[in-house]
Amino acid sequence: MMRRPLLAANWKMYKTLSEMESYVSAFLGLVSGITDRDIMLAPNYTCLGDMVSLLDGTHVVVAAQNVFYEEEGAFTGEISPLMLVDIGVGSVIIGHSERRHIFHEDDELINRKMKSAISHGLCPILCIGETLEERESGETTKVLARQLSRGLKGLRERDMKEIVVAYEPVWAIGTGRTATMDQIQEAHRVIRERIQDMAREDIAENLRILYGGSVKPVNVKEIMSLEDVDGALVGGASLEPESFAQIVRFEEN
Ligand code: PGA
Predict the structure, then answer these.
(1) Second label for 65, Cα 20 to 30 Å away, from 49, 91, 205, 212?
(2) pLDDT tens-digit map of 140-188
């Protein structure tokens, strides 16, 4: 089974509009002609609309970093799936560990966001991953299974075809500490098996599972060579166009 690689940049709370514009013009030049993989940029909310216009007609797609589950209403500070679709955004990151840990999002809220994103035609990237404490107490498999079953609760089989899962061990995010190749492959295999239990074998086979956590140009080739790794979700190393372009062209490193 050949799953199409997906290289996604999570800019988090970085970059002004003008910084976004200079990034995009440099980046497009660096990744022109690469059509055998999906390339995605997730900027902050104030850059989203302008980025959609700048990337219109290119092979680079835009994702949001978060979304609320209601379409509209008295929810100060939130952005709805309808609003993302309205400006031409096609994907959204849901349940990132910073959302879970800093903003206290739980699996139930994440599940509502997943269902709402799918029903609005957005492709959700569900982020899951264990903390250092959970890994050290041997609970990684249990934690991943729980985050998947709660985060994907109530999704129909056809919904499961629309999603992407990102495995991001919390202790490897922004720390410079990457998981070992064995740890990554093992976690990705566990995720695929769990999806197979929840849906069908072909859906699990087709599911793209990204790795995230200190991915850099120097380690991306080896990570991408793992059997169950289909892409990367990149924070720090995606903030410079040269560095993220090197990650996109992972086999050349
Ligand atoms: P990092 O972040 O690449 O800076 O570790 C990854 C992420 O949070 O998605």
Answers:
(1) 205
(2) 999 999 999 999 999 999 999 999 999 999 999 888 888 899 999 999 9
pLDDT for 178: 82
Give the pLDDT confidence score for residue 78 in this predicted structure. Answer: 98
**To test ligand 1's pocket by mutation, which of 210, 215, 246 has the most ligand atoms within 8 angstroms of CB?**
215
CATH topology assigned to domain 6-252? TIM Barrel (3.20.20)
Q: What pLDDT score does 175 carry?
A: 86
Task: Say yes or no: CB of residue 129 within 6 Å of ligand 1.
Answer: no
To test the ligand 1 pocket, which listed residue (214, 220, 246) has its Cβ within 8 A of the most ligand atoms?
A: 214
Residues forming the active site: 96, 168
The model's confidence at residue 1, banded by pLDDT at 50, 70 and 90, is: low
